[in-house]
Structures are given as structure tokens and as C-alpha cells.
Write a structure and sequence with these properties.
The protein has 257 residues and is mainly beta. It has two helices and 16 strands. It has two domains: 124 residues, Immunoglobulin-like (Sandwich), CATH 2.60.40; 105 residues, Sandwich (Immunoglobulin-like), CATH 2.60.40.10.
């Protein structure tokens, strides 16, 4: 019993000493602006569904805020054309998409920002994360904390899902940046740097493969691919820009007679 009493006294003293510190812990609302940007392109805005953002306390795993980035893709001239100067404005323009969280902080806190998008095309969604130290009362706004997603959005326009054919497929696909920005030969997002390929895959092996050429309409590419045999095959459209670290793919199952 003597040991129990001594333990109880020590615990009471520790609590008494801790109470003033706890009472003095001030919570300060602190703003954090996040912008999710497509690699080599613009901000991922509402036009492609925006981007989902989750902010966690690194030390505890607690979710401090979450939401969806909404707004426009930003100013093309500032983002893609003008030289970037230190301290210059690139993303912080009227209507530009972003997500602002107000974190309730009582001490400097390392947070992890996890993003995924574009939400409008599930098969093309990419995910990335970044950590940053948030200091109570020190708002991170303006340009914001930038998180970049690499990739293309590839969509199969034809043939239609479930197509049955004698073996020759007329293929047409749309390839855009993740922000929805258009691609075309010689354009700002130059298709001459992008290798766009259609291929047929059966039982894990590529049985046919052809490049797709520009179809004369922005972001659209086409070609003809022939299957050497019958049965179910997977049509894959793959876009690759090795120099800018962007890739994307769309798939569909077709049946060859």
C-alpha cells in the first residue's frame, strides 16, 4: 500500500506541474494553400474534376484537413511562356485553382500533403505527396505549396467498348495533359515529342503494335491495327514523353472473330 500511495503522489505532482503548460497551449489558426499542377503544364482545375487533397500530421497520422482543389488552370502566359523569376507570380492569379486549409496548430508541426487527380478521369489519376513544416501563425499562401503530378490523360474514342471485329481495328484516341491542356504537333504541348502507340495484348503478350498519327483535330490521334488471331484481346493506347517524364495509358477489351 505504501508503494501505491507514493506512486499516486508522484502522479498528482506531475499532473499539477503539467496543468499550467496545458492551460497555456495556444491554438493558432494557420492557413496552408496547396496547388496541384500537371507536370510540364498548368494547374489541375475544375474542368478535369480537380484534385483531392489530404493533409496529415506526420507524427500522429491525424487528418488535419481534406478537400478538393477547384478553379481554373491558371494563366498560360505566366505558367508556360514567360521566364520564371525568383519571387515572380506564376500560379497566384485570379480564379486559379487551389485548396486552402486552415490548420489549428499549437506548435510547429510537420505535415504531409497527399494529392491525387484529375478526379474526372479515374483511369488517368496520379498520386503524389510532399511534407512541409507548418509554424503556428505563419500562413503559406500566395503561390502556395506546389505538388506536381506526372502523366497524360489518354482516352479511347474508337472503337467502342465490347467491339467485335474481323481483326482490323480503326483506332482513334485523345491525348491531353493531366490539366486538360491540348496536344498537337508544333503546339505549346508539342505532340512531336510524344510517342503514341496502339497495341493488342493477348495472354500477356503484345501481338500487334502500330504508332498513331495526328488526326487533324487538336489532341486526337488515329491509326489502324490488325490482330493476327481471334479471341479476346486488350487494346492499349500508350502515350510517352520520355524527355518530360510524362506517360499515360487507356485500355479496352475487344473480341476478334
Amino acid at each position: 500500500m505504501s508503494m501505491d500511495r507514493h506512486t499516486a503522489v508522484r502522479m498528482a505532482l506531475a499532473l499539477a506541474l503539467a496543468l499550467p503548460a496545458l492551460a497555456g497551449a495556444q491554438v493558432t489558426p494557420t492557413k496552408l494553400l496547396v496547388r496541384v499542377v500537371a507536370n510540364d503544364a498548368k494547374i489541375i482545375g475544375s474542368g478535369v474534376g480537380g484534385a483531392r487533397i489530404v493533409i496529415r500530421d506526420v507524427s500522429t497520422g491525424e487528418v488535419l484537413a481534406n478537400g478538393v482543389q477547384e478553379g481554373s488552370t491558371g494563366n498560360t502566359q505566366f505558367i508556360m511562356v514567360d521566364p520564371i523569376e525568383r519571387g515572380g507570380k506564376v500560379f497566384d492569379t485570379p480564379g486559379a485553382a487551389g485548396y486552402t486549409a486552415t490548420l489549428q496548430l499549437s506548435k510547429p508541426t510537420q505535415v504531409e500533403i497527399v494529392v491525387e487527380g484529375p478526379l474526372g478521369t479515374a483511369h488517368a489519376m496520379q498520386r503524389a505527396s510532399k511534407t512541409v513544416l507548418m509554424v503556428p501563425g505563419q500562413h503559406l499562401e500566395g503561390e502556395g505549396v506546389i505538388v506536381v503530378l506526372n502523366g497524360f490523360t489518354v482516352e479511347i474514342l474508337s472503337p467502342a467498348e465490347g467491339t467485335v471485329t474481323d481483326g482490323e481495328l480503326e483506332v482513334q484516341a485523345r491525348v491531353t495533359m493531366l490539366c486538360g491542356c491540348p496536344t498537337e504537333p508544333g503546339g505549346l504541348w508539342d505532340a512531336n515529342h510524344i510517342e503514341i502507340t496502339a497495341r493488342l495484348v493477348k495472354d500477356g503478350s503484345v501481338v500487334a503494335e502500330v504508332p498513331l498519327a495526328y488526326a487533324g483535330q487538336t489532341s486526337t490521334y488515329r491509326g489502324t491495327i490488325t490482330s493476327p488471331g481471334g479471341g479476346e484481346v486488350e487494346l492499349q493506347i500508350i502515350a510517352v514523353d520520355v524527355g518530360r517524364a510524362n506517360t499515360g495509358m487507356a485500355t479496352m477489351v475487344v473480341r476478334i472473330r
